[in-house]
Design goal:
The complex is a heterodimer of chains A (306) and B (178).
Chain A (H helix, E strand, L loop, with lengths): L2 H20 L5 E3 L6 E3 L3 E2 L10 H16 L4 E3 L7 H12 L6 E6 L4 H15 L4 E6 L5 H13 L3 E7 L6 H10 L4 E5 L11 H8 L2 E5 L6 H6 L16 H10 L6 E2 L6 H8 L9 H10 L11
Parallel strand pairs in A: 3-4, 4-5, 5-6, 6-7, 7-8, 8-9, 9-10
Antiparallel strand pairs in A: 1-2
Helix pairs in contact in A: 1-10, 2-3, 2-10, 3-4, 6-7
Chain B lengths: L1 H5 L11 H14 L4 H13 L5 H19 L8 H18 L9 H12 L20 H14 L11 H13 L1
Helix pairs in contact in B: 4-5, 6-7, 7-8
The chains are: A alpha/beta (306), B mainly alpha (178).
């Protein structure tokens, strides 16, 4: 058992007490365009749900999804780019049953307008659902045409929200232009404690324009764990109900007022328990967020911007 | 299609976890299980007794992996598996038509390399699970490395270098992106 699994086990053991103490404090965030509240922690499927036709691994992932819903999870995000992830998600949903709290989010990822329409039909088939909560344009590919398609689907009631995505800090200038000129409900971008560039312009703009924000790569693709697994969690972290590094990184993200949802991906039930723990208890305030940043070494120590 | 690719960095194409690739290799290997030892024997025979037909044999192995491994298995989990289906088939054609030089040295080093990369599964030293061990002519990495080794063991002519390109690309891809 490695250190992270050991810590996860400890979290599992201590989780009932956390829930007991703060069970009323389940953190939901508002989608500005509708006022709807959704759980602040969602689930990504990049790599973790790309398991192909392996029944054993599909069943394992179904258990991860089951734990996600049991702990109050909502948003599940996928993409045609993620290999078999959409199909595996459909398999898992059928196996464990379609939860009422599911907030389905997927993406269009193609240069072709017609193929974009086909991708939507395909995802309906793969997920086994007619209506999606959110469809996003992946990496802004052919975004002008796909936006028309998505608006038409929204009018037909096949989707409820429209969004655009990027990751790894790319396309921010184009992102900003679209946010200023188009009516969209969601943006998805990379935001975590070591990648805070979006605090400068995109997050304040999202707040001004009433756009919900999804943070992808909340653990920097697992790099944060590798970097901090041997580092001690500061004692003051317990002040905001933080007992492990997963909670530390996730609570930092969702405590930003412009952030709606963080979507960590995992293939392990115990890690899902850890991740969903961030949806419970209190969140760090502005002063604590600054302390959190300063606790992370090798960082540029920019002041916290809200 | 190039736009899709350019919308990502190279490391974004690491889209499969080690657990998943191991499971895939296990299922692939299991599906071929009764023929495992036959392939080991034919690898031995072809090299030591039927060197004249070695490159035709090698071409068949490359085309087999192209269709069976990439088209039927890796495509389950990798959006761009079809690129490798095509490249491995191209390699099969190159091997068939160009034919590499036949190994002309049976010195100790050559035999050791052959045993390590072709006869004894290279993956024996990498895989945890015995069932997912792949052979030359069965696993793409083993076939790619084996082909390079066999070419390097001979006195390579200019045309032989074109036979090294696709195997080298795959070795790079499997080590860094899978």
């Amino acid at each position: 058992m490695d250190r992270r699994n050991f810590v996860a086990l400890l979290s599992l053991l201590s989780f009932p007490s956390i829930l007991g103490k703060n069970k009323e404090k389940f953190i939901r965030k508002k989608i500005p365009s509708s006022g709807e509240l959704i759980p602040a922690i969602g689930m990504g499927t990049w790599i973790s749900f790309n398991v192909g036709n392996s029944v054993r691994l599909r069943d394992d992932r179904s258990l991860v999804l089951k734990k996600f819903f049991e702990m109050g999870g909502g948003m599940v995000d996928s993409s045609p780019m993620y290999g078999s992830a959409q199909e595996v998600m459909g398999y898992a949903l059928k196996k464990i049953g379609y939860s009422k709290s599911l907030f389905s989010a997927d993406k269009i990822w193609t240069r072709s307008t017609n193929e974009g329409k086909e991708q939507f039909k395909e995802m309906q088939k793969l997920w086994g659902m007619n209506q999606f909560d959110l469809i996003q344009i992946h990496n802004l590919l052919n975004w002008k045409e796909h936006l028309k398609t998505l608006r038409s689907l929204k009018e037909q009631g096949k989707i409820r929200y429209i969004g655009i995505t990027t990751s790894h800090g790319r396309y921010h200038a184009e992102f900003e232009k679209i946010m200023k000129s188009e009516k969209i409900d969601f943006i998805q971008l990379t935001y975590n404690i070591t990648h805070r560039e979006v605090e400068d312009r995109l997050l304040p703009l999202a707040k001004d324009r009433g756009i919900a924000v999804i943070a992808n790569r909340p653990m920097d693709g697992g790099n944060l764990f590798s970097q901090f697994e041997n580092k001690k969690l500061p004692e003051w972290a317990s002040e905001f109900d933080c007992y492990n590094w997963a909670l530390f990184f996730l609570k930092f993200i969702i405590s930003h007022p412009s952030l709606t949802c963080a979507i960590p991906a995992t293939s392990k039930v115990e890690h899902m328990t850890e991740n969903m723990g961030a949806c419970y208890g209190t969140l760090p305030d502005l002063k604590t967020r600054q302390k959190m940043i300063q606790y992370i070494p090798h960082y540029d120590r920019l002041p916290v911007k809200l | 299609m190039i736009d899709y690719l350019l919308s990502y960095n190279l490391n974004n194409f690491v889209m499969i976890s080690p657990e998943v690739i191991q499971d895939l290799n296990l299922r692939y290997s299991t599906s071929l299980s009764p023929w495992y030892f036959l392939l080991m024997i034919s690898n031995l025979l072809i090299f030591f007794k039927l060197k004249k037909v070695f490159w035709i044999y090698c071409s068949l192995l490359w085309s087999f992996i192209s269709v069976y491994y990439f088209h039927f298995f890796l495509s389950e989990i990798h959006t761009y598996a079809f690129i490798w289906t095509v490249l491995f088939f191209v390699q099969a054609l190159l091997v068939f038509f160009l034919k590499g030089s036949t190994t002309d040295s049976f010195n100790k080093l050559a035999i050791a390399l052959y045993l390590f990369f072709v006869l004894i599964p290279f993956s024996l030293f990498l895989e945890d699970s015995k069932e997912s061990i792949l052979l030359f002519g069965w696993g793409p990495l083993q076939t790619a490395i084996g082909t390079i080794v066999l070419l390097k063991m001979s006195k390579m002519k200019l045309k032989d270098y074109s036979l090294v390109i696709i195997p080298t690309l795959w070795v790079f891809f499997e080590f860094f992106l899978l």
